[in-house]
Amino acid sequence: MLREADTALYAAKDRGVDGWSRSATNCTKRAEKRMQIESDLRAALREQQLFVEYQPQVRLRDGRVVGVEALVRWKHPRFGIIPPSDFIPIAEDCGLIIGIGRLVLQKSCRQLADWTRLTPADHSP
Question: What is the 3-state secondary structure (H, E, C) of the chain?
Fold first, then answer.
């Protein structure tokens, strides 16, 4: 009964502030999937399955790359690439987002240091 109540709670939270839900098979399946993602995400942090991809930010006036956006990605050992939309909300809800943010920051800083070493400085606007 507690598991069913927990399932209904997650379903109601997904529907928003005034959301409600009753226990049902669909809710149970969604809750089980959510719990599996949370468990797998904890392992992903430990086992370094998360990685960062960089999207360039380009100035339209001259096409010059003026920055990059760091984007976290998850390569699940069984399911392949998991979209951020499937795991970021869960990470936020269960507090794993702090560890993910720290990982992205560390990897991004290392990458910036590598790029800085390999690229001559150009400080023109």
Answer: CHHHHHHHHHHHHHHCCCCCCCCCHHHHHHHHHHHHHHHHHHHHHHCCCEEEEEEEEECCCCCCEEEEEEEEEEEECCCEEECHHHHHHHHHHHCCHHHHHHHHHHHHHHHHHHHHHHCCCCCCC
